[in-house]
Amino acid sequence: MKKNIKKNNFFYFSITLLLLSLPIANTNALSKHEPIQPIPLQVNVNKKLAALGKMLFQDKRLSKDNSISCESCHNLNKGGTDQKQFSTGINGTIGSINAPTVYNSGFNYRQFWDGRADTLEEQVAGPVHNPIEMGSNWEEVITKLSKDKNYIQLFSELYHDGLTGKNIQNAIANFERTLITPNSKFDQYLRGNKNAITLDEKKGYDYFKSYGCIACHQGVNVGGNMFQKFGVFKKNSDNSQEINKVDLGRYNVTKKESDKFVFKVPSLRMVSQTAPYFHDGSAKTLREAVDMMFEYQLGRQAPDHVKDAIVKFLISLAGTTLYQKGDQ
Amino acid sequence: MNKSKILFVDDEKRILRSLDAAFKFEDEFEVYTSNSAEEALRLVKGDQFHVIISDQRMPEVTGVELLEKVREVSPNTMRILLTGYADMDAIISSINEGEVFRYITKPWNNKELKDTVYQASRIASQYLNEATPLSKTKKEDHTPDFIKGTEIPILSDPLEISANVITQDNTNINICESLQEGILVLEFDEKAKSISEFVKTEYESQYPISIAHNMDQTIESLSQKKIAVVVACLGTGRGEISTLLKLLKKEYPLANTLAVADRADADEAIALINQGQVYRYLPKPVSKGRLKLSINSALVYYNKCKQNPTLLARHFVESVQSEQEPSPWLDRFVSAMSKLTRRKVD
Amino acid sequence: MLGQITRSPKTKTFLISTLILCAISSLGFLYFKTKININTYNETTAQIRALSQLDEAWNVEVLKSSANLSHNYDNISKLSSKSRQLKQNILSSELNKKSQDMKILKNSLDHYIKFLNEKEVQTEYYKSSEAILRNSERFLPEIIEHTIDNIRSSNPDIASDLSKLKSKIYNYILFSDKADRMLSYKTIARIKSKIKFIEKEEIRLSISNILSHVEVILELKPKLEEYLNNIILSGTHQASSRLLDNYSSHYGLLIKEAANYRLALLVYSAALLVTLLFLANKLRLSYIKINHSNKKLQSVNFKLKDLNDNLEHKVKERTNTLSKTLNQLKNSQMQLVQSAKMAAMGQMVAGIAHEINTPLGYINGNVETIECFFSKIFQLISQISETLVLIDKNGFNTFQTQQAIKHLTKQIKTIQEEEYEPQVKELIADMQYGLNHIDDIVINLKNFSRMDRAEFSKFDLHQGIESTLKVAHNSTKNTCQIVKEYSDLPKIECISSQINQVLLNLIINACDAINETNNKIEKKRMGLIKIKTFCKNSHVFIEVQDSGCGIDEVTLKRMFDPFYTTKDVGKGTGLGLSITSKIIKNHKGTLRVTSKLGIGSKFTIGLPIHQSNNIHQNKSSEPLLLVG
Predict the structure, then answer these.
(1) B173 touches chain C (CB under 8 A)
(2) Pick from A17, A118, A299: CB nearest C209
(3) Mean pLDDT for the stretch of residues C409-421
(4) Which of A118, C99, C298, C530 could form a disulfide with C545 if both were Cys (CB 3.0 to 4.6 A apart)?
């Protein structure tokens, strides 16, 4: 068996080499073989459910002191984040981790930086119960929401067991699934519109691929489908900075040494609007982020023009927030 | 000449005044009147009275009770009950306890009363004073017939008078000297059978018992046997029997009669006192003890009288006033009786 | 005891109901047992199968990825996510139930899940490692040639090392030879030691980059192979097969069991049916019985009805006879009462007669006596006349005359000395008194009886008491003292003869009571009868109190009963108080008795002053004399 695999490896490696020796820029050949896939233009979600989910998403009663809603940290007008390093929870408590974007979160195979939630539904419960975020619980929330006749009616319509935590989660998740940003310039390009992006952006994409960013930031969501250690070439421990709990990443979930500093690879789709970057919001600008990535993850250098092009490319990833146009 | 003392006792003063006045012209008597029994008794105790006449209805003590006491205190005093109230109890007790000489009802006839009192006084005199010479004449002749008619000797010797004549002893005492004297039971109807049987069982051993079922048998028994006591059962045909008893006392005063009456009849009883001087009048139901007691006492008295015939004088009877038509046996009886007495005397 | 329990109806119904309940529940139970939910089995099996298929696809994707045939990790990630979902489903299915029968499967399930989890983990590691490795493997050739060229001139030894390294690493990349690996590490170490000799910063940086990348390759490559192996050979396939086998065999057993239960159910149902039929038959029989007895009952009913009618007729007859008898009895009673009254009257009359006899006695006596006196007086008068004749004939001085005058004088003297005149006067006065007395008695008798007046009329009670006392005088004179305590009384409406009757009854009774006491003691004492009258609340009250022997409890209860008497036979009729109480009732009055044995009794009559409706005479009240 091993020998077989070895043989396979050899075979495929050779082909890879051949392919790589060819000029990289072959932008005309758009195919399904691109590592980045365009965001689908539609999602299949129950309209009413999504509407209810939206109501809940924007409902501050989900927090203990009725000051924080989901939208407070995942602002739909701010790229699905609050554009702050750390979010503010109830009682003005500053959080410890950077809020990832809600947009396209449906395409992530896990939720949270440490991937502890399998589904969007699971994720909803997190902030609600987090004492430094919404600091509440479903009982409280339900008590508050059940005074709202509208909710009662909607829930009884849509769910046979009415207003429950599970159903709240389900409604919000369904709403979140509608938050896709299709039809970005880059997606249009992927779809065949060669002139959708500028030359620089094209170059940026090529560099993105050739330098190896694409190894992790791939798929429909340009990331969000795997875990990776933050600091492959440069260890975190090299840093003089303190190590917080959040920095341990996946280790907090699996408690395996090998999972220290391992995070879910974030989606780069909305990076143009979601500064600051990384789990600790330590990169204030895209350029900074790119620099850090090169250092920690790629273990190589690149000239400025390369990095700039990459930044431009990244900006071109941002699509339209569909919800503004109304549901499908 | 000593006057006979007579005493009238009544609670009604007018009666006493009337009686006193009635005897005003009778010089023979010294009339005393008393309003109360107590006083009367005192008088009798204190002096010798021939006759005492008392009313029955008095406060505190009845006449009979008084006479009873008088009998105890002065047995020789003749006792007469004069009363307006025919109380059966009084009558019977006057016979049985008081042993009265006469029973007179109010209103009385003055003459009859005087006659009776004279009679009584005469009898009493025999025992109380020296013999009052019979020759003592009065303006009115009160000499009773009996002195003329009978042949009973009048003795001069005063007799001992015992206080307790009748014994209270219930046992059969051999009282009669001769066993020949017997008891005659007049059983004229079935109801008297129990009496005759009782008498038989009780006295058979000591005395000859004769039982007569009709008049003929009675006359026969009386003429042929010596009878001490006659137990007469007054039931049906009692008129006859009571007449017989009356005559018997007249003709043969020695026999003591006990009348056991079916039902108490006041008139009958009074007549039997006055005309028959019946010894005892016992209305039914009569207890065996009572009967026995009476018979015993009758037997005792018979003995006494036999020893002292003068006692018989006390029981002088009035003439028989029979309402019935003279019965055929009347004459026979009288003749039989007279034969008997003549024989006796002999 | 069990017998006792079953006998009580309550427990019987209880037992029966529990029995029925048990039968039904066992039936239900059996039925329930025969039912096997195949659906869940099917579902779960499908899920397992789906997962298994997914598993296969997963392997394929991973292989594709490793062969660089897939362009991103989306597929793998999607499958991995799906697998997680399916895994969750299975875990929430019946397989993961903590029930007894599922424990057998738990082992295989746990196993399967474990393998799945492992696979996931390995997949993650694989992705991470592969990405880095890919990059390094691509970057290395780019940089290493370049660097060797750059450094050849300046540091040829390093350059040769690098070349060596390059060939080694390429070899290793291709053939994963351990020897190459080792040598590579050695070469790296050598180069690292020499790196400080390089002057150009740039080149130094490049070389360090190269070295780090080589290290990464060296580190990650074997790991990646391992991961890949683990993924492909995760054993999930076997585990899932085993799980399925166990599951199906488990269900096979269940089905067998169910089949057994079905059989049992069949048998049980059959038995139940038989029992039901049996009971039904019994029921039918009992119904027949009931019908039969019902018919019998009906016929009996008819007979009863006939008898009943007959009975009613008989009862009517009897009632008639009884009422006739009752009438007869009433008549007899009235006759008896009448005869009792007659007897009492006789007694009463005897008393009255005696009362009259006393005055008659002395009147009669006095008449005779006075007659005597008169004869003496007439004698004297005739003597006087003779004397006067003598005087007239012979003159005063004759011896005869003188003798005669002497005789007269003596007579007159006697008359005077013996107080004829006062005595006669006295006797006459006595007679007058006596006649008055008799008259009085007769009047009072009339008053008392009042035969002419049987209606309600106004009556002076005190008068009534007085006349009654006179009538009873004979009885009371020696026995008791009468004390009167009168208050002012108005005239009352009553039947006077009846009231007098009542008063007489009470007074006589009082006398008798006192006599009773006297009989018991030696010395006779005068008793006391106190008659008190007073008026109160529109009623008049008469109290007759005696110092007699008193009335005992037994008598108190019965003394108003007719024919009840405490006196000897022939002495009392026993009707006195009974008629008294009737009369008082008739007058709407009251009669109360208080008594103490040995001390005395008190009878209190209350009579209303006015009689409102009692106008006409009550026939039942007897207006005749009666002494109890």
Answers:
(1) no
(2) A299
(3) 85
(4) C530
Residue of C nearest to B57 (CA): C478
For chain C, report the end-to-end CA distance as a whole number of angstroms: 71
Q: Tell me how many domains chain B contains.
A: 2
Range of the domain at C16: 1-25
Q: Does C376 touch chain B (CB under 8 A)?
A: yes
For A17-45, how does the pLDDT look when each residue is reduced to its tens digit (9 = 90+)? Answer: 665 555 444 444 456 678 899 988 888 88
Report residue B111: phi and psi, to 5°: -65, -45
Find, among A253, A153, B55, B141, the residue nearest to C477 by Cα. Answer: B55
Sign of CA dihedral B299, B305, B306, B308: positive
The answer to whether B27 contacts chain C (CB < 8 Å) is no
Domain around A272? 26-40+182-226+265-322
Lowest mean pLDDT among C310-314, C329-333, C459-463: C329-333
The CATH code of the domain that includes A269 is 1.10.760.10
Give yes or no: residues C2 and C142 share one domain.
Answer: no
Is B261 within the bounds of a domain?
yes
* B164 reaches C (C-beta below 8 A): no
Residue B154 belongs to some domain of the structure: no
Q: What is the pLDDT of residue B176?
A: 46
Answer yes or no: do C7 and C90 share one domain. Answer: no
B59–C376 CB contact, under 8 Å: no
Closest CA of chain C from A213, distance in Å: 9
What's the domain range around B39? 4-143
Token digits of residue B242:
């009571």
Distances (CA, A) of B108 to A325, B277, C359: 163, 20, 11
Closest partner CB to C81 (pick from A9, A20, A118): A118
Do B120 and B18 lie in one domain? The reply is: yes
Q: Is the pLDDT of residue C434 over 50?
A: yes
**B140 shares contact with chain C (CB less than 8 Å):** no
| CATH number, domain with residue C574 | 3.30.565.10
Residue A15 to residue C68, Cβ atoms within 8 A? yes
What SS3 class is residue C329?
Answer: helix
ipTM of the complex: 0.84
| Closest by Cβ to C360, choosing from B21, B107, B111 | B107
The tens digit of pLDDT for each residue in C199-223 reads 778 888 888 888 888 888 888 888 9
- C206 compared with C319, residue with greater pLDDT: C319
Tallying the residues shown for chain C, one arrives at: 628
**pLDDT tens-digit readout, C128-174:** 999 999 898 888 888 888 888 878 888 788 888 888 888 888 888 88
Two tokens, residue C161: 């090392």
| Residue C142, pLDDT score | 81
Answer yes or no: is C41 within a domain: yes
pLDDT at residue B52 tops 90: yes
Task: Inspect the interface and report whether the beta carbons of C365 and B110 lie closer than 8 Å.
Answer: yes
Query: Annotated catalytic residue: which of A133, A139, A140, A157?
Result: A133
What pLDDT is recorded for position B73? 87
> Is residue A206 domain-resident?
yes
Residues B125 and B204 in one domain: no
- Domain membership of residue B290 (yes or no) is yes
CA distance B306 to C434: 48
Query: In this predicted structure, which of C91-105, C229-243, C510-524 has the lowest mean pLDDT?
Result: C91-105
Number of domains in chain A: 2
- Answer whether residue A207 is part of any domain: yes
DSSP secondary structure, B180-207, as one string: T-EEEEE--SGGGHHHHHHHHHHHTTTS
Residue at which a domain ends, from C179, C213, C234: C234
Query: Which residues 6+ apart lie within 8 Å of A56 measured at CB?
Result: A62, A70, A168, A171, A172, A175
* Number of domains forming the structure of chain C: 3
C50 with C106, same domain? yes
Question: Cα distance from B108 to chain C (closest Cα, Å)?
Answer: 6
Contacts of C426 in chain B (CB under 8 A): 17
Q: Give the span between the Cα atoms of C218 and B34, in whole angstroms.
A: 179
Residue B174 lies in a domain: no
Domain annotation covers residue C396: no
Residue A295 is among the residues annotated as catalytic for this protein = no
